[in-house]
Amino acid sequence: MQIEPQAFDRVLSSMCTEPHPAARDAAERFLATNPGDPGTYPGVSELEEDAIALLSEIAGLQEPAGYITSGGTEANIQAVRIARERADSRNPNVVMPESGHFSFQKAADLLGVDLRIVPTDDDYRADLEAVRAAVDEDTAAVIGVAGTTEYGRVDPIPELGEIARSVDATMHVDAAWGGFVLPFTDYEWNFDHAAVDTMAIDPHKMGQAAVPAGGLLVRDSALLDELAVDTPYLESTSQATLTGTRSGAGVASAVAAMEELWPTGYRRQYVRSQNNAEWLADALEKRGYEVADPTLPLVAADVPRSTFDALRAKGWRISRTATDELRVVCMPHVTREMLASFIGDLDRLEVRASVPITSDD
Predict the structure, then answer these.
(1) pLDDT in tens, 264-277
(2) Which NCBIfam families does this entry report, sorted A to Z (predicted)?
């Protein structure tokens, strides 16, 4: 095989990162195990319990319950599935802000629920009045985002939980990216802060586990019964996961990363990433770009498309928001040196663009 994996030295917009060395080693050792068949692979099944216990500690869940998913998309689909199954309505709907992840569109299509998308406020957070206006007796779930993918914003989770309760809907928090940085902030986002029923939280993002390693947490283990199907030919009798066979690599990797880094290592990494985001935001503002305040380690700025394309041509792996702003995620692999090199390339492009074109005439 000639192709080599992507290097991270110029990756600035991905929400995945280089796994911690311990996580990489654990993934390799448990690669061939299958937590989908816990009767045959009891060791990795025990590790999954450890993973859920650690995730629950991070997310303020007193009685650990859930499972390790392939990522935030699976966790979000499963959360919508739980909500649909427990709803009384024949035409259930799910209400989420426009900042919600596109995986909820997949969930709506797969599960046949109506996805009601409401606007965000001036700070890119869920507009509470719009949510209140959208929910009704057919609402099965209200979605809140704790660390949005475009601006790194945290929705008002306690208030969204109250709205969900008012119509007997479940409250789901998508903390796939934000869950490993929010414990070191003053935000109210988790099971201990609000009436949260389900949560997506991904060790393979800021948690520094190997891909794939997501997480679905539930406040009450009975909610997993809404997902359970019989598994007559396996040693275990039922299964609540969306996939059947799963590699134990993600489970083992998640445990290894969290045991190494929670909480001190993650706290250090959050401080470093946040400082990098604020440094980059300041550098862009000094160059005249409009920048969204980086409340978490994510920077969005109104860099023109022509400049963006030129930076991509120089090898920078960057992306844009839905409103066409440059988007940089300060993941663990993103260093100050990388950001300084990025700004250096930006400066050189600006100088080149400012040089007038001359003619021999």
Answers:
(1) 999 999 999 999 99
(2) tyr_de_CO2_Arch
